[in-house]
Amino acid sequence: MDPRDGREKARSAEAERFDPPCLRVEILEARPLPRGALLERLQEALGGDAAALARMLHHRALQIGGRVVGGDDLPERVAPGTRIVGWALLREPEPIALRASDLLLDEDGVVAVSKPAWLPVQGTRASQRFSLEETVRQALRAPELRAVHRLDRETSGVVLFARDQGATRFLGASLARREIR
Q1: Residues of the chain above pLDDT 90, percent
Q2: 3-class SS at 27?
Q3: Number of other CB atoms surrounding residue 118 within 10 Å
Q4: Residue 60: exposed, middle, or buried by beta-carbon count in 10 A (0-12, 13-18, 19+)?
């Protein structure tokens, strides 16, 4: 929405394909919420849309008391007064595959990947799963892998990841000193 005139901004065809809009819901209950009641309240807040709730849980797009959760680690009960915020993609984003040739380097704790346009480097509020970081973690079976810097969602280019704390410190210091080319 353009704040100057209140009209929707035009979106590119790529944005429509890879960056779907999402709904934001917020719940603050005065009473304890067991898991089943929480799911009912979320679905109700999403206009009864069970598919939207499923997307929210699959993408780990729910924050309960500031902690990110998804369907796998939804608490048994939420304490009274806990702030619950969630984002539900209106539809699944089109998948963006990484090719084997996109892995440019993997040695000494450093991983360099050619990022395709429209794939966010890190998870977003609406999806912790749809990201370059998560895709590379899965491909390399490296759950501790962390992005050292970011590029905008719509930008393609090389992104550096660290496999451990030592590589993270080294890359961070090298970037700060502008030693990486």
Answers
A1: 81
A2: strand
A3: 19
A4: buried
Question: Two tokens at 72?
Answer: 């796998």
- Residue 7 has a pLDDT of 56
Number of H helices, E strands in the chain: 5, 10
Residue 100's contacts (CB-CB under 8 Å, 6 or more residues apart) are none
**Chain mean position to CA 148:** 16
Would the pTM of this model clear 0.85, i.e. be above it? no
Non-local CB neighbours of 14 within 8 Å, separated by 6+ positions:
117, 118, 154
In 3D, which of 74, 81, 105, 95 has the Cα closest to residue 32? 81
| Residue linked to tokens 């970081």 | 133
DSSP 42: H
Element housing 51 (H / E): helix 50-58
Residue 162: how many other CB atoms lie within 10 Å: 20
Residue with tokens 């796998």: 72
Measured CA to CA, the distance from residue 109 to residue 8 in angstroms comes to 44
Q: State the burial class of residue 1 (Cβ atoms within 10 Å of its Cβ: 0-12, 13-18, 19+).
A: exposed
